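Hey, can you fold this one?
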Amino acid sequence: MITLMLVGSGCSLFRSSPQSGASDDGSLEGALSGLVPLPFDTPGSLSASDHADLEAASAAVAAVGEEDLNQFNEAGDPLLRTGLVLGFSLRVGDRLEVEPLRLQILDKGEVAFPMIGTVACDGLTLQQLKRLLEARYGAFYREPQISLEFLYEPTAASPWGRVLVQGRVAGEGWVNIPPTRDLTVSRAIQVSGGYASSAKKSAIIVTRRKPGGRKEVLRVDLERVGRKGEIERDIRLQPGDVVYVPERKI
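Sure. Predicted structure:
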C-alpha cells in the first residue's frame, strides 16, 4: 500500500482508502485508485506527467535494501555493520594503554583490536560492543576503561543511515545522514551537486518505505521554500528515503 502526501502550494494531502474497486495489491496503480483528499489544502488532481514522475520515483525505491531500513534497535540506537568507522582507545587508571585509533568494521562485520584480535560485532550496539571489549581486555588489565565512539566520515558508511537522490541532479547517488540527523531534501540535493538545468523544483518526490511493505510518497515544493522562505516544507529525511527530482516539462 502506498500513501501519497503532496506538500506544497496547490497540492493535496492524500491517504489510501479502502474504496470499493480500489486495488490493495501494493502497486502504485492500486494505491492511486484509492486516493482520497484529506479535509485541508486545495484539492488537486494528478496529471499524466505526475503519474509518470511517480512511476519513476517508485522504480528508484528498488535500490533501497532492507539493510538501509533496519539499522537501529527499538530504542533508536544505531546497529554496528560493515563499513562503519569507530574511534577506540584504552585507559587503565591514569595510564593510556592504547592511544586513539581509527578502526573500520570489515566485510564480515568484524573489527581487529590491539592485543585481542578480531571481534565480531555485526548487529550489536556501540554499548554492547563496549561491554564485550571490557570483558576481553579484562583478561589483561584490571578495570580497563574503554573509549568507543562513531567517527563520521562523509565517504564511509554513516551510523545514522543514508538516502538515495535520483533524477535531475548533477550527481545521482547515496547521501549519508550526518550525526545531527537533520538532512533535509534541499541539503541532500546540494550534496548531490545541485539541480540540473532541467529540474522541476516545485514537485520533488520523496518516497519512504514503511513497516509492512507500505510506501509513503511526499511531493515537496522547494521552489516555494526558496521564494517564500517556507522552510517547514523542506522536510527532514529518514534512512532509506528516495529523493527524486523530476524533469521540468517545457
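Confidence is low (pLDDT under 50) at residues 6-43. Let me know if you want another pass with a different chain boundary.
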